[in-house]
Amino acid sequence: MTEDMSPAERYAAAKLRAAEQATALAPFREMYDFGLDAFQIEACQALEAGKGVLVAAPTGSGKTIVGEFAVHLALEQGRKCFYTTPIKALSNQKYQDLVKRYGADKVGLLTGDNSVNSEAPVVVMTTEVLRNMLYSGSRSLIGLGYVVMDEVHYLSDRFRGAVWEEVIIHLPASVTLVSLSATVSNAEEFGDWLDTVRGDTEVIVSEHRPVPLWQHVLAGRRMYDLFEERDGQGGGRREVNPDLERLARMENSRPTFGRDKRRGRTMREADRERERRQRSRIWTPSRPEVIDRLDNEGLLPAITFIFSRAGCEAAVQQCLYSGLRLNDQEGRERVRRIVEARTSGIPDDDLHVLGYFEWLEGLERGIAAHHAGMLPTFKEVVEELFVQGLVKAVFATETLALGINMPARSVVLEKLVKWNGEQHADITPGEYTQLTGRAGRRGIDVEGHAVVLWQRGMNPGALAGLAGTRTYPLRSSFKPSYNMAVNLVSQFGRHRSRELLEMSFAQFQADKSVVGISRQVQKNEEGLEGYQESMTCHLGDFEEYSGLRRELKDRETELAKQGAAQRRSAAAAALEKLKPGDVIHVPTGKYAGLALVLDPGMPSGRTDRHRGLETQDGPRPLVLTAERQVKRLASIDFPVPVTALDRMRIPKSFNARSPQSRRDLASALRTKAGHLVPSRHRKPRAEAADDREIARLRTEIRAHPCHGCAEREDHARWAERYHRLKRDTRQLERRIEGRTNTIARTFDRICALLTELDYLEGDTVTEEGRRLARLYGELDLLASECLREGVWEGLGPAELAACASALVYEARQADDAVAPKLPSGKAKDALGEMVRIWGRLDALEEAHKINQAEGVGQREPDLGFAWAAYRWASGFGLDEVLREAEMPAGDFVRWCKQLVDVLGQIAAAAPAGGTVARTARKAVDGVLRGVVAYSSVG
Prior knowledge:
This protein is of the alpha/beta class.
């Protein structure tokens, strides 16, 4: 190739190669045994040029290469790099990766419960740890050059997402930010915001999957492709597989067991036979069948997502009972060696409680569950064995989809519906993309496979919509908190803090949505000027005149509505007086004329128990008309009050369903009452005729100069348009008002409440405020108030652990029916006092319009973990504590670690001279033992 170049071209190429070799990227690329993709090179070059980067790319595409280049640059420049992740499991995994590359002396780890070499030049941490360091002004920030925010799209999370924005806003300007995100549809918008708050930021978006993904539906014995290529050669458009659509139609047209009207007998046998034939083609395969099928087709290892922990455990048991084995003898022996080495520190008694032997049997067969209810050590073992190919089938909840490095050849989705904490809802395109993104291992698989199991009522078109929508929008969940407020005011004062909060992505998005509305307001105002000019009258102020006309019209409309309501009320009252046997005249409607009341119907608002309906429109009498029809009438058939013309006896033998009965009674009705003429209802005098306000307005209108204008009605038409547009413009302005400065307004309310409680005095943070600044979490203000009021003074370590658990624990599902078991004595009194203080704070929040529904404020403390925390901190065994708590080991460990975290905060924030700080440290020792103390870092 170089032989074909001219000397000048060869010189230029050599110069370019030399320039590339002089960059930091060249030696970095040599550290990998594969070439970098174009988007990775582009992002790394931007980083080396001193720019911040936002990289949005699919799961498994290698975004983290860019984060690792930031680590490389920091080490080369003698600066620090913090690598943040949303969850501890990801932090642990990244820590292990970086230790392998750079050595344990250069890499540290900081999570809520682990601190390893925290002053190293490269520290992996959860995002909350970095937020806390920024607020406390930690000395570890000195020399910080780069921050990598992995899974930055997590800022959409309504519970924790605000932390990402806090970090982005408060990081020193000298720090270069590397944001790694899943593919989101508004990456440019997010990049614009980063550009605003962080300076020059390059947005790199890649939608290319390094391993192609094939979508399938497994129904019965057959695996259907979800899409079919049209126009050939893979370059045509993708359409839903017609075989799948035919399958859906066939299932939806399954016969229901009815009666053959010709023969008057049930045709069950024929229907059953037809059902059997259809079912031989369509059914949802069992879990062992699915894994066996994937194994036969060479599609393992596979992750099956089941949106239930119990479902994951049940799936493993079903596979074991079916005799499924995915490992040979050598594989089984390797699994046992690895598992025994990783769990050697756990006592045998605890292993028995944790279901170790059943778990090990599944692992030896190559089958495992993975969910948050498992012990962290067990989850890590599953991850390690899966990556090594010794576990080939994992049944997992959706938490596995979040960044953990467990790519598979195939991903299976059992259902497309999951419980979101409030209701069963369809999974979103973003969730579908995140879950199926695990399929296809780069450098191992030629293609990945996403398999959805056929379910009754499945719509292939809707599934194609999920699979075809590759992106989802990033939405901010940022909300100010009490802790955030005191920390901001302490560092910047209230005015500057307000400005900082208005820099949030939440406000950026709200302001951007206002732009379109503002443009519409501007157009409306131009239109209003034109309308005002067209309605100008040479005789006087036509706007004033049209205002009087509009007032008159509004008053007449109001009186007309009142009159109609009174007439409806009178008609309903008359209907309520009817009795069976009353002869009435139906004034209007399809059944107008003579009628006999069979049943007067229910009074307004009562429930019709037969129909399960609520009758909101008054009584609905059942009548027999003179034409022999039995009908249930409604209030609409009685625009005027109705009175009984006469009475008739209804025979006890009368049957409304019998034509003969209806004919006989209708004949008797005509004979008895056919000659009766209903009294004519006199229309009441209109209220408008006697209304003083209407009389006054009419007088003013006639006296107005514009009333005599020859073009009055022409002007009036323009005036009507003017007022209609003005009303619409006011509504738009109210919408703008509601969206502008929303974050700052919430901050002002929080500051007002904190001022009332003496945490703030203008721009000064009081001593109580400085205590609140050291307390992080949903119930920061409640914890601070408990410390201020001495609620926890005099408690023992186990009692304090029980009380502190109420600050962190939140039941997965609310259970108001059963009161939680509580420790007796001082702990119970202290917990009661905590609930009382929360009630006072809740009333204060309501007074200051701080709305918990919007994610701001203090939720009620949950006492559901208090007994378990008390027993564990008191030294009771794991078996006994878990049995009483009725809680999975993984949940128990997670809540205990959060409890240790909050106890540490309480120890740091407790006032000097009291007993709480010392007791909190002892409580930490009581909780941080046994399974809770097992390090999740190898």
